[in-house]
Amino acid sequence: MAALKASKQGLAKIKQKRKELGWPIGDHRWLEEASSILGVSWEEKGYLADGISEGTWSRFLAGKEGINTPAFKAYCQVLTINWEEVANPLERQDWDSAPDVSVFYGRTEELDRLEEWIVKDRCRVVALLGMGGIGKTTLSVKLAHQIQDDFKSLIWRSLRGDPPLQDLLGELILFLSNQQKTDLSNTLEGRLSQLMECLRSQRCLVVLDNWETVLDTGSLAGHPRQGYEGYGELLKRVGESQHNSCFVLTSWEKPKEVAAIEGPNLPVRSWKLKGLGSDAKNILKEKGLQEESLWEELIQLYKGNPFALKIVATTIQDLFDGSVSDFLNGTLFLGDFEYLLSEQFERLSQLEKKFLVYLGNYAEPISRSQLQDFFCSEISVTELLKALESLNRRCLVEKINNENGTFFTLQPALAKYVTRKYK
Ligand SMILES: Nc1ncnc2c1ncn2[C@@H]1O[C@H](COP(=O)(O)OP(=O)(O)OP(=O)(O)O)[C@@H](O)[C@H]1O
Ligand SMILES: [Mg+2]
């Protein structure tokens, strides 16, 4: 049976109405009246209508799980509320392999801003960018949970496994049309048009994780992989056409189509995800580390990357008996984080690799003109700027702006990785 639950705003309305009516939460009259609306009088029969019970009433009030539609409507009628105004409009959701995010720390500022972009500003494409392990996937799931009330359909997909665009489009069209549009076009162009129809006809949230999978390696950042050029066209269409829906994507690199059409006041925007900061202490606490006074230093060393911190925290427990000071006295440890860094490093163009090695070997942040002086015999200024911009789009270099200009540097873990690789 179809189930309904209250939206966030709906819950506030239910609470307000309950207060106005003045009966305590546990008053049996709520149930009796709802039951008689469904045609079963408690006084006459001594039992309640199907679906009316203390359990459904408390689930209705909590709004976390759906309850059957007749009971939902009856409870609304008792409260003299129009059920359509309080019911969560989300009719269809498919979370596929989205991870569980019940353990989630910090990111309140990010979630607030992203919600504002999507719900208030009606952005059509939002790209969550950041290096491996920084928390993009986790944030995308948390965000989707937070804003789901604003949508009629929600679908979350990872692009791992490189689905051909035609297949992905087919899956999206079938899901978003509630399996109604079965006459799928045989051409990419046709399917793009069918998808746009779905995005126009209702408000849908489509989350696509691991966008970097469909981007090229060995060239500048954000260019589509051979055979996957259609994905760029998809982004352009969704970003530039009129519709009511939103695509959220996560990626190691900013796709070039996003770079071309994004802007702080435009419907296409990107968010570069930083580390967790002090909130990462919760991860260290979870792992049972000691010497809390040193946790901030440890977090800084790995720039608050939750994946890296999980790895080192396990190592500190296993090999250093939980002692952070012993661990910090040794050499910077990368563990399995190295594989993730290596995967990202191998995607770079030759020139970007050279820049990273140069930055990694240099203790101080470096200005663009210093880079230019060093590489002037090898490359033109245009090539240098392109490579720098590309690195910036990959979230691998840190940019520091101060009164003396713009400087570039690498975070310690990446510096360690490149200098060890190119000793
Ligand atoms: N806000 C958070 N609170 C708690 N744990 C987090 C948070 N963000 C990320 N994590 C944890 O950190 C790890 C890495 O996160 P996640 O997989 O989201 O990173 P990612 O940026 O998607 O990485 P990749 O680029 O490799 O896909 C996961 O184990 C996740 O549970
Ligand atoms: Mg991820």
Can you tell me about this structure?
- The chain has 423 residues and is an alpha/beta fold.
- It folds into four domains: 3-86, 434 Repressor (Amino-terminal Domain) (Orthogonal Bundle); 92-272, Rossmann fold; 277-333, no CATH class; 340-421, Winged helix-like DNA-binding domain superfamily/Winged helix DNA-binding domain (Arc Repressor Mutant, subunit A), CATH 1.10.10.10.
- The chain is 48% helix and 11% strand.
- It has 21 helices and eleven strands.
- It has helices spanning 8-21, 28-37, 42-45, 54-62, 69-78, 83-86, 108-120, 136-147, 165-176, 188-201, 230-240, 256-261, 281-286, 295-301, 306-320, 324-329, 337-345, 350-361, 368-375, 381-393, 412-421; strands at residues 3-4, 67-68, 92-94, 125-129, 153-158, 204-209, 246-251, 268-272, 366-367, 398-402, 405-409.
- The strands form three sheets. It has a six-stranded parallel beta sheet, with helices on both faces. The protein has a three-stranded antiparallel beta sheet with strand order 9-11-10. The chain has a two-stranded antiparallel ribbon with strand order 1-2.
- The chain is globular.
- The structure holds adenosine-5'-triphosphate (ATP) and magnesium ion (MG).
What structural class is derived from the secondary structure elements? Answer: alpha/beta
Report low-confidence residues grouped into runs of 5 or more: none
The backbone outline, from C-alpha atoms, is globular
Discrete helix count: 21
Helix content: 40-55%
CATH homologous superfamily classification of the largest domain: P-loop containing nucleotide triphosphate hydrolases
- Name the CATH architecture of the largest domain: 3-Layer(aba) Sandwich
The whole-number mean of residue pLDDT values reads 93
By DSSP, the count of extended strands is 11
What name does CATH use for the topology of the largest domain? Rossmann fold
Regarding quaternary structure, how should these chains be classified?
Answer: single chain
